[in-house]
Amino acid sequence: MDRHIAFDGLHNFRDLGGYSTPDGHRIRPGRLYRADSLGKLAEGSADWDRFLSLGVRTVIDLRHPWEAEARGRVPGHPSFTYHNLSIEHRPYDQAALTPDIDPDPYLAERYMEVAQDGVKEIRRALELVAESAESGTPLVFHCASGKDRTGQLAALILGLLGIPETTVVEDFSLTELATPGIRASWSRRNDGRKPTWPGFGRAPGAVMRTFLAAMTARHGSTENYVARELSLDALALATTLRGALLEPRPTAPPVPTYRKAAPADAPALARLHDSSALWQLARGIDQWQPGAKDETHFRTRMREGEVWLAHSGGHLVGAWELWWDDPAAWGPRPADAGYIHRLMTTPHTAPPGTGRRMLAEAESRIAATGRPYARLDCLSTNPRLRAYYKSAGYTVIGEQRAKDGGAGSPYAVTLLEKRLP
């Protein structure tokens, strides 16, 4: 499931549902949304109908009142209430910043200012989230790009729900999938010009990590901040949110179904790759990079081999590539194997065990061609992934110290092989 909900004019509208707690619960889907400016919605449009279909009953606009006046606010409708809570008291123009400014410390400092200045508005926003949770109705909060002010409020809510910090960082970084649309929208509003700051619209995970570290250093924990600075009963608030917004993770999700990808699937595959890359980076795994495999890559792999999709419950939950040779890693070989690449699942929303099921499906496809081996490789610096494949029956048979993946920078990979029955 793509966490972003598709709109024509909105770029960063996301469902927070599906994120998991360490004790086996997850946020209920369809109850808590974060977004970029809903002022871009127009009555009578397809986007407006799509928004109303979500059943949102509370809208929290975190922008300055002058932003809402200049850029528009969500159209009024009897189905929801609108609240303008400007949590930022010291406005600044990100697009006009100079290229030498590092997003990490700069934005983290701005976020700390908001946490200090906006206590009244942040308190009210959390109260509204709790009221919405207790009433069982969906809520959305937004700012201009759905990144900074929205990201801060999301971090507080996720923290109170018991979501791990790595997931909070990942959720913040998912704005990277919307960055092209955010920057294009800014250019359209500004006579085709480009922002002077390269960091405009970007959401590197390091920004959120630095902000959370600063919050911990100053307040000790999210709960302490809520109690001491916002004057709320943090334990009662967390209990309310968890009781209303969390549910046990499904124990018997539908078994995935598989189909071969077609060229029209390339955008979804590129997005799945980037989502997986952001998941890895939030956890300190430097294996994939967002944008490294675009739509052209996946269309090429469809022509030269096979790409397969896995669906469960009507949603895309994973994919993989199947090659019939791999000279860059394995050198010249007889036609005795299939080579599995880019085994990827949708972070947080794929049923448990989806990766192993897809691996078995790929192996069965290889065996059906009469080839006796399944082969794959992983970065030599990723022992966690190597252990995963070894637990699936793969044996390490060597290392390629200078694989050329086509990007011009050779890298070392561990070679693994499995004899198929």
Write up this protein:
It is a single chain. The chain is of the alpha/beta class and 421 residues long. It has two domains: 14-248, Protein-Tyrosine Phosphatase, Chain A; 257-419, Aminopeptidase. Helix content is 40%, strand content 19%. It has helices at residues 46-53, 65-71, 103-117, 119-135, 148-160, 165-173, 179-189, 205-219, 222-228, 234-245, 266-282, 295-304, 327-330, 354-368, 383-391; strands at residues 14-15, 25-27, 32-35, 58-61, 81-84, 139-142, 246-248, 257-260, 306-312, 315-323, 337-345, 373-379, 395-403, 411-419. The chain has a seven-stranded mixed sheet with strand order 8-9-10-11-12-14-13, sandwiched between helices. Strands 1-3-6-4-5 form a five-stranded mixed sheet, covered by helices on one side. The longest helix is centred in the N-terminal third of the chain and has 17 residues, at 119-135. The model has no long low-confidence stretch (mean pLDDT 95).
SSE map:
Elements: E1 14-15, E2 25-27, E3 32-35, H1 46-53, E4 58-61, H2 65-71, E5 81-84, H3 103-117, H4 119-135, E6 139-142, H5 148-160, H6 165-173, H7 179-189, H8 205-219, H9 222-228, H10 234-245, E7 246-248, E8 257-260, H11 266-282, H12 295-304, E9 306-312, E10 315-323, H13 327-330, E11 337-345, H14 354-368, E12 373-379, H15 383-391, E13 395-403, E14 411-419
Parallel strand pairs: 3-6, 4-5, 4-6, 11-12
Antiparallel strand pairs: 1-3, 2-7, 8-9, 9-10, 10-11, 12-14, 13-14
Helix pairs in contact: 3-8, 4-10, 5-6, 6-8, 6-11, 11-12
